[in-house]
Amino acid sequence: MYRIGQGFDIHRLVEDRKLIIGGIEIPHDKGLFGHSDADVLVHSIIDSLFGALSLGDIGTHFPDNDPAYKNIDSLVLLEKAYNLVKEKGYKINNLDNTITAEQPKMKPYISLMREKLADILDIDVDLISIKAKTMEGQDSVGEKKAIIANSVVLLVKEK
Description:
The chain has 159 residues and is α+β, with helices and mostly antiparallel strands. Helices cover 30% and strands 30% of the residues. It has helices at residues 40-52, 58-61, 74-87, 110-121, 139-142, and strands at 2-14, 20-21, 24-25, 31-32, 90-100, 128-133, 146-157. It has a 5-stranded mixed β-sheet with strand order 4-1-7-5-6. A two-stranded antiparallel ribbon has the order 2-3. Strand 5 (90-100), helix 4 and strand 6 form a beta-alpha-beta unit. Helix 1 runs parallel beside helix 3 (74-87). The longest helix has 14 residues, at 74-87.
């Protein structure tokens, strides 16, 4: 049996924060605003996992008003989310992601992100796709005020 899930996240860019995307710290003059480390890609992946199994969303499991999650590494949340997926008897068949950011350029970091995510999710790196796009100067992303991530996951029931 297969289950598909879709995830989306957006965070504002602000000063005095590290920019963490896909578990990788990316040198930049701004970072993403959020209760946790605001890793937009990992948050999108978590929502895709929860969505595939009708388990709610990231805010349901890791509320932004809970001090336990203040500045937490989003990879810790991803590991917890994937443990729920495994408890339900599923594994990842493949994961497809898109990061939309005007700056910084994501290409130099994509292979590192894929390796980091593959390690956390205990899957082959070839099962994870990450693409990068811009908004060609349009909307809050194009104006360098935010970064978006979209994710789609296909889960398969383990035998």
